[in-house]
Amino acid sequence: MSLQKLMEPEAGTNRTAVAEFILLGLVQTEQVQSVVFVLFLFAYLVTIGGNLSILAAVLVEPKLHTPMYFFLGNLSALDVGCITVTVPSMLGRLLSHKRTISYDACLSQLFFFHLLAGTDCFLLTAMAYDRFLAICRPLTYSTRMSQTVQRMLVAVSWVCAFSNALTHTVAMSTLNFCGPNVIHHFYCDLPQLFQLSCSSTQLNELLLFAVGFLMAGTPMALIVISYIHVAAAVLRIRSAEGRKK
């Protein structure tokens, strides 16, 4: 009988016997946990405050109603969401000393983290494209980066990230967890959950590699290409004043 067959649950049993996971977090010593709590709370509040300030400035100040600041405002909102998916729950566990998270909550955290982080990545690509048009194609910038185009770029970013997050979450939900449930991390993510599964994760790991290469590699390549063109355009400017501008 194959190893994969041995790891499959018996007929009529639950596909996932594990109802909750234990998140060990970053440290286990109680004294150090207090220090970690204060540091992460401070970092969280600073990050939230900074990003909300940027978002408020973009919304209130008419001079900032430009494509670059439109994307920056969206990026700030995403950063707030991305950090809120993981840090507050970690702070709550440090306060209550309760390290458990339910199976459904773990998958939800996994989905929203990949959704927001993925959208963040695609928005950075849109911002690079915006700078490319502004510097390398200034005469057609206003038409190529209209409000309709801006909204379309944001919508496409959300759709691509949603597809990525949903794919990984659905694939993860097909795995069996019937034994170990201790996660050596402070939030639920794919590699840690792969290690706990009692069924084959080969397909999931292949999916993570393939989709990760597509969803991260493509934006990275486009960002690099955009800024290479921007740098080349700046270097072609002869005057020092023009380059500085």
Helix content: over 70%
Largest sheet: 3 strands, mixed
The helix/strand class is mainly alpha
Which spans of ≥5 residues are poorly predicted at pLDDT below 50?
1-14
* Elements, N to C (H/E): HEHHEHHHEHHH
CATH superfamily, by name, is Rhodopsin 7-helix transmembrane proteins
Q: List the total number of helices.
A: 9
Number of domains: 1
CATH structural fold name:
Rhopdopsin 7-helix transmembrane proteins
Taking strands numbered 1, 2, ... along the chain, how are they ordered across the largest sheet?
2-1-3
Q: How many DSSP-defined strands?
A: 3
Distance between the termini: 70 Å
What CATH architecture would you give? Up-down Bundle
The value of Rg in angstroms is 22 Å
Overall mean pLDDT: 86
Outline: globular
Portion in strands = under 5%
CATH class, anyone? Mainly Alpha
Family: Belongs to the G-protein coupled receptor 1 family.
Transmembrane segments: 35-60, 69-91, 111-129, 149-167, 206-235
Membrane topology: Multi-pass membrane protein
Keywords: Cell membrane, G-protein coupled receptor, Membrane, Olfaction, Receptor, Sensory transduction, Transducer, Transmembrane, Transmembrane helix
Describe the overall structure.
One of its GO terms (molecular function) is olfactory receptor activity. The model is unreliable at 1-14 (pLDDT under 50). This protein has a single domain (21-239), classed as Rhodopsin 7-helix transmembrane proteins (Rhopdopsin 7-helix transmembrane proteins, Up-down Bundle). The chain has helices spanning 3-7, 30-60, 67-96, 103-136, 141-144, 147-173, 190-196, 202-235, 240-244; strands spanning 20-23, 100-102, 182-183. Helices cover 72% and strands 4% of the residues. A three-stranded mixed β-sheet has the order 2-1-3. The chain starts with a helix and ends with a helix. The chain has 245 residues and is mostly helical. Helix 2 runs antiparallel to helix 3 (67-96), helix 3 runs antiparallel to helix 4 (103-136) and helix 4 (103-136) packs parallel to helix 8 (202-235).
